[in-house]
Design brief:
The complex is a heterodimer of chains A (about 400) and B (about 60). In chain A, about 50% of the residues lie in helices and about 10% in strands. Chain A is α+β, with helices and mostly antiparallel strands. Chain B starts with a strand and ends with a strand. The chains are: A alpha+beta (about 400), B alpha+beta (about 60). Bound molecules: iron/sulfur cluster. Chain B: Its cofactor is [3Fe-4S] cluster. Chain B: Keywords: 3Fe-4S, Electron transport, Iron, Iron-sulfur, Metal-binding, Transport.
Chain lengths: ~400, ~60
């Protein structure tokens, strides 16, 4: 067992997990670490340990539990509102998740395909009609998932600037606590007002349908908040990162260009390769639990280094290679266990449509700047790119 | 080989449907798993689905 002073969270290479995390995986896969917020917790770095932990209901997701690992001090204040789905444990979690998961089934998502295709086409056409170079983040990565989640939830897209700015404020690690709290408050009052309007005039959307099920206002606001934030930056960042990775790996790009049937597998590989949301999978032990020969005591926090785990050679051969044909379906980029990402099938489909369409419509697409100079989001809780200048 | 699904445990992630749509479907209502074929045609695919299921709602009886 090793104790490291502080868990570094910045990467030395934009395409690899932080070196220290890799060292932990090799030398001390279950170890005590000090978080930047000061708290000492367990860090898990192996794929198998993380899967076991996340599937074990004795590890709680309750963010109000004082032992729950928070990366930042100010997070405690932000997460102290009434439990949203991600913060619930059984027996509360199952029914709450089931009440909304029907909106995200594989079939329902497939029914959205034509609309998403249309959104992607429109945005690409607009980009091609505009000046070169263009910023792919603004032209495509952000608007596509934002529009889709807004339509699904019934949130007016006209307000997208409002929630995009709040959402990136929240996700940036360097945001001061007060600004973080303000961003949450503003988003919550916006959603609260929106739900009031839907009570009077229901539409054909997720939030209106949820209103038929429950009138518990706090719960609905929390759900809307979660889906809106989670639907915004995650997929957007994967679109940007995936585009860079495919441009930098011409053999991978050629494979999906020749045979679009390979795109779903390429998307899984890109999800594994970047693992953009690793700190979402923290837990706190509610009992003394033995894991991989180590005793984790009741009340102790555990963080899952999912990025490193998704490069675990025990789980993936040549894990640091981008191999779009490897069949990486067992990655944990969407987490694992009862809380595994609710929107994963939506995200998969958006990514597949975007990559297929982008590289078909813009065959000459290339970076307008060397990839080493791109502004990777090393200071955000969701990894990604602030800007992606491209030309064609 | 027979597939057993525990819908109380299922979290409706649909990983099984994506992996083996001939063996699994999801309820329109709450997203929980529906086993279309208790004895799957493609055992390899069905095993992969069981392995990938995030909630361990699926098991195999040999
Ligand atoms: S993969 Fe597991 S949790 Fe997801 S729908 Fe299938 S049985 Fe349910």
């Amino acid at each position: 067992m090793t104790t490291v002073s502080t868990l570094p969270i910045t990467r030395s290479c934009p395409y690899a997990p932080p070196d220290e995390h890799v060292r932990l995986r090799e030398e001390a896969p279950i170890s005590r670490v000090t978080l930047p917020s000061g708290g000492e917790v367990w860090a898990l770095a192996r794929h198998e340990h993380i899967r076991t932990m996340l599937a074990d209901p004795r590890f709680s997701s309750d963010r109000a539990n004082p032992g729950f690992p928070l990366l930042l001090f100010s997070q405690r204040r932000v997460t102290n509102f009434r439990a949203s789905l991600i913060s619930m444990d059984p027996p509360e979690h199952g029914p709450a998740r089931r009440a909304v998961v029907g909106e995200f089934t594989v079939k329902r998502m497939a029914a959205l395909r034509p609309r998403i295709q249309q959104i992607v086409d429109e945005h690409l056409d607009a980009m091609l009609a505009g000046p070169k170079p263009a910023d792919l983040v603004q032209a495509l990565s952000l608007p596509v998932p934002s529009l889709v989640i807004c339509e699904l939830l019934g949130v007016p897209y006209a307000d997208h600037e409002f929630f995009q700015t709040r959402s990136s404020t929240l996700l940036r690690r360097t945001t001061p606590g007060d600004e973080r709290v303000a961003a949450v408050d503003e988003l919550r009052s916006y959603l609260d007002a929106l739900i009031t309007r839907k009570e009077q005039e229901p539409g054909d959307d997720l939030l209106s349908r949820q209103l038929e099920r429950t009138t518990a206002r706090e719960e609905l606001v929390s759900l809307a908040f979660l889906l809106l934030i989670a639907g915004h930056e995650t997929t957007a960042n994967m679109i940007s990162l995936g585009t860079v990775a495919l441009l930098e790996h011409p053999e991978a790009l050629a494979a999906i260009r020749e045979d679009p049937a390979k795109t779903p597998s390429a998307v899984e590989e890109l999800l594994r390769y970047f693992t953009i949301a690793e700190f979402a999978t923290s837990r706190v032990a509610t009992e003394d639990i033995e894991l991989g020969g180590v005793l984790i005591r009741k009340g102790e926090g555990v963080i899952a280094l999912g990025n490193t785990a998704n490069r675990d050679p025990e789980a993936f051969e040549q894990p640091d290679d981008l191999d779009v044909e490897r069949g990486a379906r067992h990655h944990i980029a969407f987490g694992f266990g009862a809380h595994q990402c609710l929107g994963q099938n939506l995200a998969r489909m958006e990514l597949q449509i975007v990559f297929d369409t982008l590289f078909r419509k813009v065959p000459g697409l290339r970076l307008a700047k060397p990839s080493a100079e791109l502004p990777f989001k090393d200071d955000a809780n969701i990894y990604g790119l602030y800007e992606l200048p491209v030309t064609w | 080989m027979r597939i057993i699904a525990d819908t109380d445990v299922c979290v409706g992630a649909g990983q099984c449907v994506l992996t083996d749509p001939e063996t699994f479907d999801q309820s329109e209502e709450d997203g929980t798993v529906i086993v279309l074929a208790e004895h799957p045609a493609d055992e390899r695919k069905a095993r992969e689905a069981v392995h990938i299921c995030p909630s361990q709602a699926l098991s195999i009886e040999e």
